[in-house]
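Section 5.1 Outputs to date
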Amino acid sequence: MSWRLGLAAVGLAMAVPASAKSFAPRDECGAIQGADAFQMTLATAVANRDEAMLLPLFAPDVLLDFGGGSGRELLQKRLNDPDYRLWDQLDELQRLGCGGDATGFYSPWYWGEDLGTDDPFMTYLANDRAVPLRASPTEGAPVLRLLEWDVVTLIDDEDDGSKFAEVAVGRMRGFVAWSDLRSQISYRMLVGRGDGQWRVTALVAGD
């Protein structure tokens, strides 16, 4: 049995140039036959932490990492593994929208968009509305502007244990709490069709 990935590239190939700087979640999958029913079943399984409902929604050879990890059995092991927290990742993906077409769809919605940066490893999104960009890395620092699903670029990717990341937004620099940022290459979910049914073909992070 062969499962199509929908978008052939699970890696970093982006499909369509973006037309706006804000990448707020949106659902563009409503016109795809069967996508709404699939998403509703997935959401129910995730909300109830129901493995019996969840596992059949994934392809038998679902890709789980780029080191050879795949399959439903490994998926089941990783759902509650604190090193992967896949239930939590699936929870998060539920709020990040859906993009795609009749050949396949994906979440987050912005996965199919050109975010306009050169280095995906340094590219993040402010993951909500009204995310403060501060003048210094402290909670009480002046707010330079509020971000709304804006793309930001890390100034330095060195992990010094700070709660804040120094970022550039266009020509402006400032600091954003790490908890308010989501990496471009964080978890994404690709759904393809096989045997006339939609199934998750990849649930991966990184590159």
